Each structure stands twice: as structure tokens, then as C-alpha cells.
Amino acid sequence: MVIFVRIVFAAIGAALGYSGALVVLSSGAMAGFIDESYLVGLFIFVGFLVGVAVGPPVMRGLKRGSKKTIQVLLKTPTHELVGGIIGLVSGWVVALILSIPLLRIPFVGDYVPVILGVLLGYFGLMVGLRKTDDLPDMLTRTGSRGLKSRKTATQGSPKILDTSVIIDGRISDITKSGFLEGDLIVPGFVLEELQHIADSSDVLKRNRGRRGLDILNKIQKEPYSHVRIVEEDYGEINEVDTKLVKLAKDMGGKVVTNDYNLNKVCELQGVPVLNINELANAVKPVVLPGEELKVQVIKDGKEQGQGVGYLDDGTMIVVDGGRRFIGQSVAVLVTSVLQTAAGRMIFAKPKAMERAL
């Protein structure tokens, strides 16, 4: 294969060398300095050597580039590809129309179509990719305004998932319940981070990474959610959290996380954030002092004679004088509720002790 590539590029180089020699001879720049046949032979020989040298590296670069292009195209949703192609063609058509009267400009007129084609083609491609959601309304002859208004009201802004919330797994149940509207965006750099964690030599990290990939695969297969992989990388930025904030600003979306530090960074940058831990605390049942609960005391508390138990949602209950009830289910009366950054704590005392008093 390498020999064939060298032969092809050598032939192309020789042909280009011959064409270059004809251009030089027609200009008369070398007239009288060197014989025409020697000049042609020299150009062909140099072109042949250049073709042999650059052939394999160029083919390797084209092969790598085509492979990456195919991977990106396979990951890009079909509706985005269609929108991008329509935008690209539209940009070229506009460039062609605008360049017709500009062709008569001296010196630069021949280059105007190329410049306009590149600029307007790129602009049309970007607009087409970002406006794919409006494509069905544009193609619909009737009721387009009503469809668009209903879609805007129900779709919601994109929700950008970070690594921690995918590994956590609760996002699957939340999306299934229908409380999250709009597309779920998984950036390519978050997916790479998950893969790195799943390939880690540390058993705990590897299990966490694989759990995250399983959760993501589960969400993608469910009909109640629409997951999009976005390949925007921001190569000039190293921190994943900073990339997430930048992507959320560019897309006009919200970051979904349970990372406390990322939550604060988003607030400082003015980016809307949805914290899963805050949601979990918000939906816990309200417990008021004086209410009676049934709890199983499972271990000692920090203070003398205390016992500790947990509700079904994981809320800790500290039972004053509950040490002697370890391993038993006991009725308790709530005395106070403490809300901390880590969650909610409930303080109670056995109901039997209340009666004794």
C-alpha cells in the first residue's frame, strides 16, 4: 500500500513539476540561462522526489482526519446534520449571488467568490446546526406558528450533565418522573472523563466509572428523555468544570450537578444550576417537633446514651437515651429538627421515656 501511494504521489509531483516548468518557460524568466529540456527535466525530477517524500505522511494525515470526521458524524444526531447541510448550502448560494457584481473589481475580483464562499458557508453551517429545532416548523405549511409556540413552552432549556451527577445515578429516576424538560446534554469531554475513570486501575474508581456509563446508556434508551452528545471541546481550557460553565453559557442551558464547588462556580458566573442534592433535601417529608415516628436504632450516638437510626430517605435520627434500644424498632417523639449543609438531622426521644416523665 505504501509503495502504491508513493507511486501515485510521485506521478502527481512529476506532473506538477512539468506544469511548473511550462509556466516558467512561458514567462521567459529563465531564457538564456538554462536549456529548456534541462529545465523541464529538473522540475519533473524535483516534483517526483517531493511526491515520493510527502505521499505517505499526507495519506496518514488524511486517514486520521477522515476517521475523526466519521466518528463525529456518527455521534451527531441526524436532524443536526440535515440542518447543518441546509445552512451550508444556503450560505454558498448567498455567497454566489453576492459575488457576481463583485467579480469586476480589479485584482481581487477573482478571489471574492472563494472568500465569500468560505465565510458565508461557515456562518450558514453554524446557524443551521443551532437552529435544527426550528426545521420542522419551517417545512410545515400550516400551523407553524402554533407548533412553534407549543414547542417553546414545553421544550425547556438544555440540561448539561456533569460527571458526578451521571455517576450518582439519581438523574435516571428524575428524568423518568418528567420533572426535567428539554434535551439532556452530555459533553464529549465529560464522556471522556467517564471513560478514563472506568479504565482506572483503582477498583473503586473503575466501578464508579462503569456505573456512570451504565446509567448514561440506560437514559439514552428510555423514551422519556432525549440525550445529545455534544463534541464542543474548548481545547484552550483544561478544567472540566470551566468547560461546563463555558458550554452552558454558549448553549443558554443549565448545569445539572451534585458537586458543591461546581455549584458555587456556576453561581459566580451567573449560570443557572440544578443541584440534585438540593432537590433531594427539598422533597424530603417535613417533620415537626412533637410528631411520632417509628425508627430502628442501629448504633451508638456521639453523646452519652444516644442512639442513631435512619428514615427510609436516609435522614439521620438521633435518639436521646436510645442506646439501650440498639437493634430494636422504637416509637420516638421528635424534639427538634436541624438543617445542615450535609442534610437534615432529627433529634428525638423514646416515647416510653416521655410517658415515664
Give the arrangement of secondary structure elements.
Layout: H1 2-27, H2 36-75, H3 78-99, H4 112-130, H5 135-139, H6 144-155, E1 159-161, H7 163-168, H8 170-177, E2 184-187, H9 188-198, H10 203-221, E3 227-230, H11 240-251, E4 254-257, H12 260-269, E5 273-275, H13 276-282, E6 292-300, E7 307-310, E8 316-319, E9 329-340, E10 343-350, H14 351-356
Parallel strand pairs: 1-2, 1-4, 2-3, 4-5, 8-10
Antiparallel strand pairs: 6-7, 6-9, 7-8, 9-10
Helix pairs in contact: 1-2, 3-4, 9-10
Tally of helical segments? 14
Helix content: 55-70%
Query: What number of structural domains do the residues give?
Result: 4
CATH secondary-structure class of the largest domain? Alpha Beta
Low-confidence stretches: 140-154
Question: How would you classify the helix and strand content by structural class?
Answer: alpha/beta
Q: CATH topology of the largest domain, anyone?
A: Rossmann fold
Q: Let me know the average pLDDT.
A: 79
User: What's the main sheet like?
Assistant: 5 strands, parallel
Give the distance, in angstroms, between the N- and C-terminal Cα atoms: 94 Å
The oligomeric status of these chains comes to single chain
Elements, N to C (H/E): HHHHHHEHHEHHEHEHEHEEEEEH
Q: CATH architecture of the largest domain, please? A: 3-Layer(aba) Sandwich
Placed side by side, the strands forming the largest sheet appear as: 3-2-1-4-5
Shape: elongated
Q: For the record, what is the CATH homologous superfamily label of the largest domain?
A: 5'-nuclease
Q: C-alpha Rg, in Å?
A: 33 Å
Say how many strands there are.
10
